[in-house]
Amino acid sequence: MNGVALPASHLEFLMQQQRTRGAPDNAQTRQMLKDELVNREVVAQEAQRSGMAKKPEVQTQVEMARQEIMVGAYLRDWVQKHPVSEDDVQKEYERAKSQTGDKEYHARHILVDTEDEAKTIIGQLKKGTSFAELAQKNSKDNGSKERGGDLDWNVPAAFDKTFSEAMVGLEKGKYTEAPVHTRFGYHIIQLDDVRQTRFPAFAEVKPRIQQQLTQQKIEELVRGLRAKAKVE
Questions:
Q1: How far apart are alpha carbons 158 and 225 in whole angstroms?
Q2: Domain containing 221: what range?
Q3: HSE (CB half, 13 Å, CA atoms) of 194?
Q4: Most-buried pick from 48, 111, 167, 218 (CB within 10 A)?
Q5: Residues 97-129: pLDDT tens digits?
Q6: Residue 232 falls within a domain, yes or no?
Q7: How many CA atoms does the CB half-sphere of 37 hold within 13 Å?
Q8: What would the pLDDT profile of 19-52 be if each residue is shown by its tens digit?
């Protein structure tokens, strides 16, 4: 193209991209990609003639793109050489399963700023005022107050430890008769129901666990490289 040969490796690179997207590797697809490469080269040559490559903002973008490609290639190669083992995935699955426990709880709460406010609300509950009504009027938790304090179904580990300990100690239909203090404020908690947890089978979550562990390994790698680097 104007004396510039189009490398076969460029065509193969684009063809590989198309294959990963489900496109067939046939003459029609390859001709389409050849046309795309010609179009790119024509415009790139014109951009070069116009001095576009000398613009600082273009040079910055080119350098950033080059860096991104190098980083991506290095990390992919590193992950292939340091894969997450089947044993690591199994251990993480068992850890998550044990942390989740065998029960999940449907609770609601009212969150206020002070212990005195919480005690006043508990007094109103004892007089027969609806928990949902009091939550809508008083709770500082905007995520649940409009639903009458409803927190939906959760495992205890989803909550602050003090909150979860108070919650699991309740009988169904009962509320905490003393304020529960966490870093968020003072809670009144009501337990609506309890049921057995359905923890997903290993095969269902294996890909997600592999991805999470791989990302953790990459983050550890980057932290190690930063620790050895002189960052100013």
A1: 33
A2: 55-101+202-227
A3: 14
A4: 111
A5: 888 888 999 999 999 999 999 999 999 999 999
A6: no
A7: 19
A8: 999 999 999 999 999 999 999 999 999 999 999 9
